[in-house]
What does this fold into?
Amino acid sequence: MTAFMTRAPGLLAPSILSADFARLGDEIKAVEAAGVEWLHVDVMDGNFVPNLTIGPLVVEAIRPLTRLVVDCHLMVSHPEFWIEPFAKAGADCITIHAEATSHLSRHLAQIRELGCKAGVSINPGTSISVIEEVLDQVDLVLVMSVNPGFGGQAFMPSALKKIERLAQMRGSRKYLIEVDGGVKADNIAAVRKAGADVFVAGSAIFAAKDRAAAVKQLRSAMES
It folds into this structure.
């Protein structure tokens, strides 16, 4: 598994939501060979967000296939019911939404107690102030740069100010800043400059015929 706490030169986390599920094992091997560090798993329950995607059994199936960090993003209501199943399935990091629970601190502690890195996510319409009190408890802050629930949306530039603010607030804390939604070669440099460490890219990688070339293009754009 790739070391979790790495900031430079920027970690790519292709979202399997954009992969061909009929060939999921091969898809994962292809992006791993292309040089990405993480694998992003978008979990939607049809309640917190409109769509329904995958459950712990998919994570359990892919865990033996890769040494990449398996980064599970729970876009679900009542995340407390899903934390343990995903931890047992093999997640390395579990991120829950601040908007999904009134017991955020408790559930972040639950994630860590189960041996996973703990992440908190905020939607485009949610202020950073909502998570300020738990920043000492998290390993990762995920900034949504689209409204969650659908792939293929355009990046919202307003996310850059949140990323910049979180980077300023980090101080001696070691949390990573992850951004999810519409990240592509034409905006990844601005996202990196704002202070992001982890870049979720779905169609930008999985929609490309040449995955290695797509990863190379993103890395080159990131440093431009």
Remarks:
- The two ends are 28 Å apart (CA to CA).
- The first strand starts at residue 11 and ends at 14.
